[in-house]
Amino acid sequence: MRHFPVRTVRRRVVGALAVGVLAGAGLAVPAAAVPDTPATAQAPATAQAPITAQAPAVSRAPAASQDPSLAQAPTLDDGQALTPPMGFNNWNSTHCRAEFNEEMVKGIADIFVEKGLKEAGYQYVNLDDCWALPQRDANGKLVPDPKRFPNGIKAVADYVHSKGLKFGIYTSAGTKTCSEIGFPGGLGHEDSDAQQFADWGVDYLKYDNCNNQGVDAKERYIKMRDALKKTGRPIVYSICEWGQNKPWEWAKDVGHLWRTTGDINDSWGSMLSIMKQNLPLDAYAGPGHWNDPDMLEVGNGGMTDTEYRTHFSMWSIMAAPLLIGSDLRKVSPETFDILGNKEVIAVDQDPLGKQGTVLSSEGGRWVVTKEMKDGSRTVALFNETGSAQRIATTAEDAGLPAADGYSVRDLWQHKSYNTAGTLAATVPAHGTVMLRVAADGKWASYPPAAELGLDGGTLVESGKTATVTSKLANLGRTPAREVTTALTGPSGWTVEATSPTTAGTLAGGKSLRTTWKLTPPAGATPGAYDLTLKAAYDSSGGKAAQSLPVTTHVVVAPPAGTSQLSALPRLSATNGWGPVEKDTSNGEDQAGDGSPLTINGTVYAKGLGVHAESAVEFYTGGKCSKATAQVGVDDEKTTNGSVTFEIWADGKKAASTGVLTTADAAQTLTADVTGAQTIRLTVTDGGDGIDSDHADWAEAQLTC
Ligand code: GLA
């Protein structure tokens, strides 16, 4: 049902096709303009006054939180969006399907109130594309689709307002919107459309970029800014040009937020790629002007709850707008727990308005910190990889002053601890531990923080016994007493401690290590199994308990000789669109919807069809020597695909290509994987987002 790639292609040609339509609209059309060329490279035929000359009178004093070098452009400074906007938008859950209608929108407003989301800060209930009829009326006015909105838009806005909420709408800074049908866009109709929105009681406008006729982005977005201003109604203005013209460099005095990337979809790979594009832009965000890495997918079903918690944590630490994109009438209680986590929301909504900064990101172990108004720091320990990782930093590295101890609030556990300075956790695959750390002198009233970890045992061959070591480290200033640890496995597994599992006292800085023997039942089916490592202790700050989920894979040794990787069991697989495909290209949605693997005209019978960002892991058990494949962008994408292929052996990069595009022939990629326990085939987005990144590992073979 999702048509993003089709739409991507269309988006790139329409600007060129439809030149001329605008002549009657009185807008000059630049020669040979391409919508996805950065604004600076476009030479508009019209002479344009510099932006600053068109800007309304505003205060030029940069906010204290901003890097002065970025403060040349004044902000809108109209008192709106002083913290990132929070609310709902239907697009990610409905696209243009019929269920996007008055009933849905009202239902969401009701749920905002009933489920406490309004109270948690969610405010805007926004319509996306497809709310209108394809034609304007005789007076050039927009006409709501009577099937979806039989009582018009004002009635819906009134309903939303009656709940104490605000109402938003969508159109495009082009001749038509982005949907296949193409509803009327605002280009050349800015004043009339803005007035119509204001008359309906609109409080928020998302202004998209499709069918923009190659007109300079600044010019288009400034026109609508000025039109909105003329209405006299405060309307939050969301610029949606997908980061194509680097709006973070010029849009501070144009809109309150700007998209920094292409569209998100409900997959780990897409979310990750967007996160990585948005993280480096931290210096550009601040009160009234936010980077927008697109709307939330939490609750839409394409990611696990662990992944959705990461999505929500990272959007919050990036001070991103929090626009819920799932149909709240149908979501699970876990979804409400995630979206309603007030401690995480408080990170997003912190009035200082800083976007978190990347402190380190080695080997997919990310530490991101955010300065908070009260002087505390939020620290996200985010694990990008497919296996549990220890991620650590210190309170001082996170920006806090030296102190005897610090209080640490775990924002997902909702518990407080003390630490002598170390902030560390074993973070499950794709998980995020989110901590708020303060040098507030209150540390002694909390139990010491404990770090739980497990060495070994994540891979066990069926019928064999693995030895694992658990470690409970006291990171605090105060002793832990009556310490106990326990490791439990699924039914049928034998888990035996072969050294003490308890300690009377564990001083700060000390650890309790326990060795365990772990045996899956004979004939256990290969695959992932969940174990739990637990610890409990007492302290002067009260009792505390920790629990660490541990994933163990029962694995089979790969056969001797050369095998097709597509025929071997995978340890894990993540993909930017739909599932990783066996022996076909990536069809994007369901398993089995791909086409024959084809790179520059050559068809391959075997291999893996993936979509960036992608990672596929295999067990090699120290018995293999070589992994090799013919790699390239699949021919089903004719433009815009650009990726790199990498082969990793036990967490070390063993081989990689440079950036390969749709124009490149297949390249042979071979890695020496001698001695490795696992290998991982990774496809990155080539640095430009995941649009059209259909990548083939053709004839992918493993020699053991
Ligand atoms: C573009 C935007 C999306 C959504 C659709 C609607 O792709 O980036 O967020 O609004 O258009 O067609």
TrEMBL record:
Signal sequence bounds: 1-33
Low complexity bias spans: 45-66
Segments of this protein annotated with the region Disordered: 45-88, 574-596
EC number of this enzyme: 3.2.1.22
UniProt keyword list: Disulfide bond, Glycosidase, Hydrolase, Signal
Domain of life: Bacteria
Domain Glycosyl hydrolase family 98 putative carbohydrate-binding module, residue spans: 559-704
Keyword set includes Kinase: no
Chemical reaction(s) catalysed: Hydrolysis of terminal, non-reducing alpha-D-galactose residues in alpha-D-galactosides, including galactose oligosaccharides, galactomannans and galactolipids
Keyword Metal-binding listed: no
Family membership noted in the UniProt record: Belongs to the glycosyl hydrolase 27 family.
Name used for this protein in its record: Alpha-galactosidase
Organism: Streptomyces monticola
